[in-house]
Fold:
Amino acid sequence: MVDGRCGVAAAAGRLLSRARQAAGAQAVRGVVVLNTAAKADFVEFRGAGFAAYLVRPVRPRSLLTQLGAGSAHSSDTRRSRQSRGRAELASRPTPGLGGGR
Structure:
């Protein structure tokens, strides 16, 4: 993750490339943080290898989504929450169908 205020997408891209080389087989996702007015600059960062951007001020949920994007844990957690929600709805009595008052 880099701060887009550095303004040098090529240098950030070189840093991202070195991080990917150092990580070996592990995936490295490039994310840049930009100001609202600088969103158009993402084209340069995408060309340098970055996959996503966040707009300042960064919401915690957006940050966590980007940090967890593509991980098995994130999708497992999401599926687990969805399953719990469906199970909870299924266990509630339905009014008018013999279970409600």
User: Anything to note?
Assistant: The two ends are 54 Å apart (CA to CA). The chain has one domain: 2-91.
